[in-house]
């Protein structure tokens, strides 16, 4: 259950804006990689010093900066200074217990999302915080761990497939959010299969530990809900934002990803409903079996 | 339960606007038929090439284009180009896991509805996606399968009964939605009969598998709810839309179909309430029987 | 449960505005009676032809036209033409599965209400649709059956007691709604007595079939709720309506009947709460009895 | 349960504005007493005729008129005429099944509140309707019975303690409402103690009738809720009212009494939550005891 | 349960604005300490007379006045007079059963918060009322008891770490609220651990008294909810307040503490969900055990 409870108490008493890592897992080493492009050119760099990123802020190119691993607080603070980020933003980036949200700082937008992964071994859903800082010509992604999730997007950008290279940093931001939401469907399918399996088992052979499995899945659903629901508000906020950072041509894409978010929320709610029903089946099946035992007992007693 | 879960994961990593079929069933071959009319004339054609439909866009006549079966992606893309449809619309048309919704693209409105069918054999409700693209002088319907549902409407249009021939494409759109909603009542009556039968059985002879039947019906209700609820918003959106594509004279008809939608939502909620109550009866009836067995046992033991 | 489900499927495929009777009971023969008055005079007539009513539309007197029984579709259509009613209104009048609602057609307002009757024999609540068409100087009431409910109102109007004769058709409309709502209280008292009796029985002697009675009453409450809740919206709509058909002096009376509607909704919700609680008592009382049987059994077994 | 159901059916068929007493108890004889004051002077009178009150309407003094007991309909009607009250107000005053509400009649405000009393003997909460008519220089309180509740307020007014004598009739109205709400806390404390006692008993010795007591308390909570919830709206309405009858300087006091109302609503909701939890404890405690009996039985059977 | 019920009845009959201590615990002796500063200087004083504080109202420095213990009503009234506080504010300060709220009195803002403490010994959450009075150059904190909670904040202020010394009284107010909310996370972690422990126990060895522990925790959650939920409204109110007392530069910090409040509300709701699920596990585990006992019994009986 630990992942239900925010572990912010470690921070009590510190001044606001102090970046202290708070999260479920230990922080991983920080690695920066940059993809910088305009319609003609693409460059990929992997700066070893965070301060090398400063050039991208003034560059005429659009830059997508990926920061994977949040252990190196100094590097993050350097980066924060380079791009004029508020200390509270930095604090929220390393404190990975944030709820999904959107904050407009005028010069840039700050967004928090949750990336979900289904772990086959433990049948658990793991969550990772993804922070986005969207400026006029740059997008910075802060991730807790290295991840392959955005590889197809990087390739499309590198090989200039589709409209992606003609558009600005806001389109990259949209693409990143879209990828995250699409990934929710994979995770929900996996969880849905588990629910299905459980239900069949419940009907054919209600073994003893099944209640615990139902309860565990219910907990997963509470967790998923908390990760996905606020995203709806975030994207709605982007749609309504009258910030020059979000161009109008993006609106149609945001509507699309908004729909997908609603769809995944729908799926979560349906799964929750299914799980509630399963408890009822279980209880009635126990009562039924009891009745039968009693009948046997009565017959024997009669004899 | 599979129909509860959106199977979008197949799409992860693809650029937005790529039309890939996603749905519960395999795509069926594509067949196009057009009904083109003004107050005096009606023509019916069945173009073999999607590109033949281009003429209808500029025609002074009003055209109702039916596309049944979504397998032929190329034809759909051609059609999309002919009528200036956005790639995201095409993507949503073939991805048949959409929620009912209304989107205003300026030149045309895009709507998604769910058509429901009650399958007598399996006692299940099947759902099919119906996409409508409403332009100034055309309405395109995209359906997953061939269906007889709109035959009476086509006949009325052909034989010029009622006011239908004097009115524009928006009236056809209304008539299509009205037909879909009227059909919900047939499906709900069938489901309602099942609920009635189950309740009588529950009271007269609560057999063992009845809980499973109740649970199955509950699942159907969740499914029906998801298909019908968002329709209310869609029609409400049409009523409030200040698009030149929806003429004012249509408002009175939309109010009517809005009422019917509310009525079918009401019926769904009542059926859900009934099903919840049935579980309580079942549990108490089991407990009661148990009590009686115990009494018998006690009497025997006493002897 | 049949009365929970709208039987609109009979209409599927027909053009909108076709008046086909849809309802729980067979349609009764149509009988028209008119009460026409100003401050000085009152006339009562019973036209045999619907077309005779046309004079009342232009008359300087205020007319209250009662139509009881909906079998004679032709007469209704004639009446509709005489008073300029939209075909969709006629359709809704004969289709008695409407939800209570208010529709503003400019020249007249169309309202649907539910009249409730408690049937002592079957302990059931029956519902009948009452449609009101309110014009500048006329009110037409369409009822499914003959009913004595409005007799006192007719007498007051005839004998000129109170302010009723000085006021227009909107005041008659208010008086009709008020009478309908007042009648809800009689019905709710009857149902409330049933709930009380059931509760006493539950505590003193929980017989076997009691769960079924509770369930039946629960169903009645669902039904009552659906009939009464939307009325609140209807009256609220009348209060806010800026139609010349509703004079300002009526506002104070509408507020009064609005309060009564809220009161009856309150009563319904309280009764629902009571019924939910009764299930809990029942289950625990069964468990308790079981415990006692077991104790006896144990004592016997010990001996 | 009788107090849950509005007994308005007695009124069906009567013209609106007919004052007929409707309530849980028989009407008590009517007694009028007046307290008239300005900053310097206070006079107390007990007029025997209602018509004697007319002088207070034009008086430069502020008058607080208490009417206790509603049996003498004639006196009430006289009073109504003297102060220009609408017949519907009089009707609501004697019909003591009103919900708390606020109505603005221009010249005066009409308010309905519920006064609660805890009856130690029967452990029941009784409710009494308090109607307030607030004019520019008078406040009339209509109560069902004689009550000592406002004695401290009268004394403060008579002995000129605090700011009360410098202020107008609206401040008296506030003070009356404040007294009523403060009294809710006494009643809720008593009910809360009952809930506490019940819970301790449940844990230490769950006797048979306890379910019935829980159910009875639940019913009391439903009743309390209906009496207190609407008050919030009433006071909110007073705060927003732009009537010259409510001076701005009163706003700060209304905010205060609003807070207290919210607090008592909070307490009610918490008590309801507690009672729901108690059922669960009870059921599980029964099951547990059953288990133990069965174990004993098994051991004996084994021997 | 006592802490659920507001004990305001002691006040019934007193004029509004009479400061009478009402709370769960006896009032503690009053101790005042002041921290007065500008960018260069800091002074700490501990006035023995409340009237000594008057100088801070006119001082060019910013003053943070801490009042710990509310027994000395006279001192509080003196302080109230010195800073122009309304009698109703004083009343609310000593009446420690307030809900969290924000009130704008023009010259100053009045806020009520709840400070929570987890008592290891009894596993209970205790609550203490914190009242804030925010003026243009002063912040007065009224606390029920001495507390170490704000020590780190005082030290930061004294040693001039961070931006704190350059900013006004509103920043101190924000810092105080932030500290209170951060502390909620510590308390919630402790409660969360208890829930975790309980759940493990439930699964491994469901002892008899466990239902009572679940019920007790549920009660704690109701209590926590009531303390934390209204805070959201308070901070939202501060964000929207167009008072000169809240400078614009504070907005970004308020957004931050708002997020944390939402996060702690989320945690509370998740814990509540977990506890509801635990009851289901418990009931099914009892039923299961029963089944097994019965099987043993049947086997023995057979032999």
Give an account of the 3D structure.
5 copies of one chain form a homopentamer. With 303 residues, the first copy, chain A, is of the alpha+beta class. Chain A contains 7 helices and 7 strands, in the order ββαβααββββαααα. Chain A has helices at residues 54-58, 73-82, 87-94, 151-158, 169-204, 210-240, 251-302; strands at 31-37, 42-45, 62-68, 101-104, 109-119, 124-134, 138-143. The first copy, chain A, has a 7-stranded mixed beta sheet. In chain A, a hairpin with a 4-residue loop joins β4 (101-104) and β5. Chain A is elongated, with a radius of gyration of 24 Å. At the A-B interface, α4, α5 and α7 of A face α6 and α7 of B.
**Average pLDDT, all residues of chain A:** 87
User: Largest chain-chain contact?
Assistant: A-B, 52 and 46 residues
The fraction of residues in strands of chain A falls at 15-25%
**Class by helix and strand content of chain A?**
alpha+beta
Placed side by side, the strands forming the largest sheet of chain A appear as 2-1-3-7-6-5-4
Total strands of chain A: 7
Low-pLDDT runs of 5+ residues of chain A are none
Radius of gyration of chain A: 24 Å
What helical percentage do the residues of chain A reach?
Answer: 40-55%
- Oligomeric state of the chains? homopentamer
Shape of chain A: elongated
> What string gives the helices and strands of chain A in order?
EEHEHHEEEEHHHH
Number of contiguous helices of chain A: 7
């Amino acid at each position: 259950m630990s992942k239900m409870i925010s572990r912010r108490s470690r921070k009590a008493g510190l001044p606001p804006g102090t970046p202290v890592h708070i999260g479920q897992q230990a922080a991983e080493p920080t690695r920066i990689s940059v993809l910088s492009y305009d319609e003609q050119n693409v460059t990929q760099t992997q700066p070893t010093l965070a301060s090398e990123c400063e050039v991208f802020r003034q560059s005429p190119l659009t830059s997508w900066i990926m920061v994977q691993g949040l252990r190196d607080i100094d590097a993050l603070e350097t980066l924060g200074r380079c791009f004029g980020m508020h200390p509270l933003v930095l604090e929220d980036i390393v404190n990975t217990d944030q709820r999904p949200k959107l904050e407009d700082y005028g010069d840039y937008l700050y967004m928090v999302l949750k990336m979900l992964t289904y772990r086959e071994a433990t049948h658990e859903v793991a969550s990772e915080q993804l922070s986005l800082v969207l400026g006029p010509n740059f997008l910075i992604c802060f991730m807790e761990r290295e991840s392959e999730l955005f590889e197809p997007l990087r390739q499309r950008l590198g090989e200039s497939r589709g409209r992606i290279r003609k558009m600005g940093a806001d389109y990259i931001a949209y693409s990143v959010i879209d990828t995250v939401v699409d990934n929710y469907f994979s995770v929900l399918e996996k969880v849905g299969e588990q629910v299905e399996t459980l239900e069949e088992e419940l009907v054919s052979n209600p073994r003893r530990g099944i209640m615990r499995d139902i309860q565990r899945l219910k907990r997963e659903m509470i967790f998923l809900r908390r990760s996905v629901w606020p995203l709806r508000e975030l994207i709605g906020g982007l749609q309504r934002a009258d910030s020059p950072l979000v161009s109008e041509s993006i609106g149609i894409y945001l509507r699309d990803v908004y729909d997908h978010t609603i769809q995944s929320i729908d799926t979560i709610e349906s799964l929750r409903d299914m799980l509630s029903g399963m408890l009822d089946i279980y209880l009635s099946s126990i009562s039924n079996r009891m009745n039968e035992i009693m009948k046997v007992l009565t017959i024997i007693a009669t004899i």
